[in-house]
Amino acid sequence: MKANAGSLDRALRVIVGLGLIGATVAGALPTWGYIGVIPLLTGLVGFCPAYPLLGINTCSKK
Question: How far is CA 10 from CA 1, 19, 44, in A?
Answer without folding.
Answer: 15, 14, 7
